[in-house]
Write a structure and sequence with these properties.
Helices cover 69% and strands 7% of the residues. By secondary structure, it is of the alpha+beta class. Helix 2 packs antiparallel against helix 4, helix 11 runs antiparallel to helix 17 and helix 19 packs antiparallel against helix 20. The longest helix has 46 residues.
Length: 620
Amino acid sequence: MSFKLALRNVRRSIRDYAVYFLTLTFGVCLFYVFNSLGDQQVIRFLGTNGNVGVVEGIFMLMGVFSAFVAVVLAGLILYANQFLMKRRKRELGTYALLGMPTGQVARLLVEETLLIGLCALVFGIALGILGSWALDRLTVAMFLATPGEIFSFSVSWAAAGKTALYFGAIFLVVMVFSSLSVSRARLIDLIRSGRTNEEVARRPLWLSVVLFLLGCVSLGTAYTLLLTRGLLRIDTLWFVMLGLGTLGTFLIFRSLSGFLLRLTKGHPGYYKGLNMFVLRQWSGKVHTNCFSNTVISILLLLAIGVTACSVGLNDTISSMVGDQTPYDMTVLNYGLDDGSYQEADIPALFREIGVDPDTSFASVESVTVYYNDPDITGMPAAGYYAAVGRSDYDRLMAGRGLAGAEGLTLPIRTPNAIVNGPAADGIVVVPDEMLAQLQPRRQMVNINYAGDPVQVDGQIQAALERAGTFGGELSIMLNCKLDNYYDLMGSKILVLYMGLYLGLVFLLTAAAVLALQQLSQAADNAQRYQLLSKLGASEAMRRSALIRQVALAFLLPLVLGVIHAFVGMTAANEIIHAVGHVDSVHSSLLTAGLLLTIYGGYFIATCLGAWRAVKEGASE
């Protein structure tokens, strides 16, 4: 009997549970998607190309992050369940008033939670499989250097089992808390739930102004410490900075309730339409809003900062592939074992091991670099280890369609890399006539493949393994673009996916907490909106007032969160600049898109659900 009643309640209240159910579903989806990475063929392929340590690091961090995410989602679900329990206390009190034992009421809640949890798991994992497929295709698309590889997609049953295990434990905790909450509640408290209002203590305006100024000073001090000391210097002052930032955020929200309301009273627009009602409704939950808005702003800071920084660092890593490896292969000939310089016919050496350069190579360009002599070139020895002639530099750049050294005042550091890898750093371009005074250092041969780079590179690697040696007495090293690409790809996936995982979870949590809070308050305020109707306010005016009330609740934490994130990203970009160029525009646009989609989507869903709660509450 109780199960049928639970099933009926879930079906009847599905619209009330919509935001809660969607949050559970998206949480399950995200958890499955990122825990299924280990079963993607493209990730396993990455691990077979000298990146076993990186791939193992991805799996290890994914496990750690998943445990952390599970704790965050568990807190979110418990928080959401608390609001739902508050909404349903009168209904549960009615059951008890009609003679249903307390244990039966608790059992009813357990069965409802079980039904919602099972539905969320099924739909979440189904949506997660679709999301995992999309992420798999994205990962494959990121392997632009491997067009010949075909990666199939498969469902990760291990990730599905892990997801079911984690969320099953979370739902079990929710069931226990719900049962305890009902069993300990008095009947009179259940019946009168929602009729008590929060007492708002009137504070003088000067106190609100002082709190606001103290909050600004705290935030300003925290920002100054962050920007002057950096993000990675973790010591006592780092925790002081963190505490000041949190305190400043709390004080600003604490002061706004009295500060904003008192200031707007003197504005003519305060008495226009239902503006007075909207502002008083917003300030009526002062104590709850202060704490929750502080938490939400910090969550938005983490969501925006982590997402933007991970995307920005990902773009930086991607650009390093092209900047550091302009050729498919660079052959570095260091000369004879005794250190003396000797040029070699590199295509002939490849032909000796079974690789035909006529069919495998599209271009072969050899250049000699010389020791940098500061007395001759005028360039300091520190940071400049080698020199190359202008004609050789111009020839290499012409092959890539880039400008040469014409118009530049020589000597100058090479504007573009002339070989693969770190050997490109510290080379200067000098006039050709200066080379006669310098000592040859090494031979660099740049090669571009003909055809599929993966197939050609595989043929060369197989030939080298069969031959055992390459170059005889010469000391030769190969620097392949694909090797650098695979090394950087592991870091790229690690940075991007970990950042997106945490960023989406933080954003989902912040939006869900706000949505559930506003839905609960809308249900509590249904009678007030009914009173507005009796006083002559049209439905359009009441709906507009509700939307503005929800918008105010969503906007204020977002504004402060964006300010926090801007300062934090400024400090983080200083670190990323040490690695390479930061594409802040792309990372900002992508972060804004995710923010608009998730945060904006929750805002729209909250407005629709809040208006429905007001209409239904007024009709009771």
